[in-house]
Amino acid sequence: MTQMNGVRRQFVRAAMAAPFLQREEEYDLARRWRQDHDEAALHRLAAAHMRLVIAMAAKFRHYGLPIADLIQEGHVGLLEAAARFETDREVRFSTYATWWIRAAIQDYVLRNWSIVRSGTSSAQKALFFNLRRLRAKLAQDGTIQGNAAMFSAIADAVGVSAQDVAVMDMRLSGSDVSLNAPVADSESAAAERGDFLIDDKALPDEVAGEHIDGERRLAWLRQALSVLSEREMKIMRARRLSDEAVTLESLGERLGISKERVRQIENRALEKLRQALIERFPPAGAGPMIDRSA
After folding, report:
1. Rg of the chain's alpha carbons, rounded to an integer?
2. Residues 144/154, Cβ–Cβ less than 8 Å
């Protein structure tokens, strides 16, 4: 770690010691890089503006990311600016490069500040990077009281909804929590947050499969029921196809037969249904059915 800090300090000192470029010099270096791919020219142009990268990276250090990584991303933005810089616009390279450096660092912060991506639109990005500053400014002015009024004022300033401001404020006020982190108030000392996210419900593919199989079985049953007589159908509906099954005794009284006769008819109907299902939809791997009545 000490050696790394030493290398970092040497890098910063070298960047700060790099000579400034005059307008004509940076224009010439930019032309040589764009037209001739002169890497020496690119190196001089980049080295002279690394102090700009370091200064820009320092503005984003409060997001908790390594300053070396911020500088590295800013350097990527600097090289992108060098590849796109047009001398015909007659602006200084530092003015042009500032936007690319900031954009590269901001994109890195958005991708790495949290495992949950924040700021997917330009308005959301502006909210992410300006919320704390605007909130501190409004709190210092003292003209707005309460979170609702403050969120509304910030929403108007950035161009988003107050709900977006509230959600972003909540995201920035707390850090990511690992699902493997222990739960302090749990009865089990070994319990982790992820243990409470388990869903006992069936998986979507299982639910879909069960639904399809259920529809198929229902269609088979409807076809098989066509082999039953009218009385057999009445008994099957009352005994097997109703939410509350009718007793043999009460069903016998309704049909004018004994309960034993009802039981016999029910068993015969069940056997007929079983045979009909096997004949029409034989199990997988079963051979052809043989008619033993012949």
Report:
1. 38
2. no
Average pLDDT value over all residues in the chain: 81
What is the reported pTM?
0.52
| Dist. CA 137–CA 153, nearest whole Å | 11
Write the DSSP symbol of residue 281. Answer: S
- Residues 54, 99 contacting (CB under 8 angstroms): no
Which two structure tokens, joined as six digits, stand for 74?
Answer: 């800013």
Contact 45, 93 (CB under 8 A): yes
Q: How far apart are CA 51 and CA 13, in angstroms?
A: 9
Task: Please tell me the distance from the alpha carbon of residue 178 to that of residue 183, in angstroms, as a whole number.
Answer: 11
Cα separation of 131 and 127, whole Å? 5
Cβ neighbours for 76, distance < 8 A, ≥ 6 positions apart = 104
Q: How far is CA 175 from CA 57, 114, 159, 194, in A?
A: 21, 8, 25, 17
Token digits of residue 8: 């970092």
